Amino acid sequence: MATTATPQADPTPKEPEATPAAALTTGTSDLRQLLLRNLRQSGIYIAFVAIVALFAILTEGLSLSPGNITNIVLQYSYILVLAIGMVLVIIAGHIDLSVGSVVALTGAVSAVLVIQRDYPWWVGMLAAIAVGLAVGAWHGFWVAYVGIPAFIVTLAGMLLFRGLTLQVLGNISLSPFPSEYSKVASGFLNGLLGGNGYDAFTLLIGAVAVAGYAVSGFRTRVARIKYQQPVESFPLFVGRVLVVGAVVMYFAWQLAHARGLPIVLIILAVLIIAYGVISKRTVFGRQIYAIGGNLAAAQLSGVKVKVVNFWIFVNMGFLSAIAGIIYSSRSNGAQPAAGNMFELDAIAAAFIGGAAVTGGVGTVVGAMVGGLIMAVMSNGMQLMGVEQQIQSIVKGLVLLLAVAFDVYNKRRAGTSR
């Protein structure tokens, strides 16, 4: 007798079909995550443009005049140099509180040799760099090989090297430097390519900088996509490049209509490019991020943590010496109180530019934008006649909000997983 087979139920549970409302909710969530990630990546640039626009309105355009933009470059270049080294120190999970005192000491050594003892101007610069390297090696030894926290070592260094500055100068100021020395921070390149009422060479350098930024950003984006790493949306990437390009070209246009391209800006650009490559495209740079991101994992991966930490502080001493040369050139002399509070400005630039308090996060470009935000704010408030105590309050609040934003983003990232 034939039997009829009854169909068996599929034991595999089926996912319920998504309703239009559920699909809309999912899409909204994805869009929210995308916007939050893009905000974290590009928020510093948006903030910089907004602050520039705000002070342009408050100062009735005076903050964007050719002469004032040139003054911003000259007045804050040494802080930006310090910020380059400081962001690498912070990425590795350390801090350096001594850079202001090292700026003073290196400038003092250079002044004694050049002004008091009549050595050539370049001898003073080389001596300043040698002192900076020695200071960095001193800090690196105690931090890397003895194991004393960098906060304590550099706090002691802040007192030690300030005292040595007073000793070297005999508690007096020395000035003036020869004209060749002063041109480092006060000289300009003008008229190399001509121009009718403007310096064409400055505009050319600005255009090259924008092109380099766009190409570098695109290559980085392609590499991140290749390794399936998150990137910002392409329209936002293009928008960021256009905004940065417009800001840079406006900046170059204003410089071209003032005194031309400052020599110190060329020095700063070379350092930014060099350290951008070092931090992102070299083994040493990747090791810095590894140490700050997860020290135990870096050690297990074979990273020579002591050696890397040692050279991080040697590098910080080198850049402090460069900043000391620029500052002494700018002030045309050496003073016992030079570099006072510079370390706080450099630290603020790094944190506002996106460096994480816990280490492992940060970029050289971000530190530069953070430093420029501080520079534009300080300059704008000075033009408005704001009292010094109010300026300090505002800058302190901006620093606090920048770190709070970083903490908030990390918490959101942790809860979204």
UniProtKB/TrEMBL annotation:
It is a multi-pass membrane protein. Its main location: membrane. Keywords: Cell inner membrane, Cell membrane, Membrane, Sugar transport, Transmembrane, Transmembrane helix, Transport. One of its GO terms (cellular component) is plasma membrane. It holds the Pfam family BPD_transp_2. It comes from the Bacteria. GO terms for molecular function: transmembrane transporter activity. Residues 1-22 are annotated as: Disordered. It is found in: Cell membrane. The chain crosses the membrane at residues 42-63, 69-90, 97-115, 121-141, 148-169, 200-222, 234-253, 259-278, 308-327, 347-377. Residues 1-11 have a biased composition (Low complexity). NCBIfam families: GguB. PANTHER family: ABC TRANSPORTER PERMEASE PROTEIN YPHD-RELATED-RELATED (PTHR32196), XYLOSE TRANSPORT SYSTEM PERMEASE PROTEIN XYLH (PTHR32196:SF32). Part of the binding-protein-dependent transport system for D-xylose. Probably responsible for the translocation of the substrate across the membrane. This is Xylose transport system permease protein XylH.
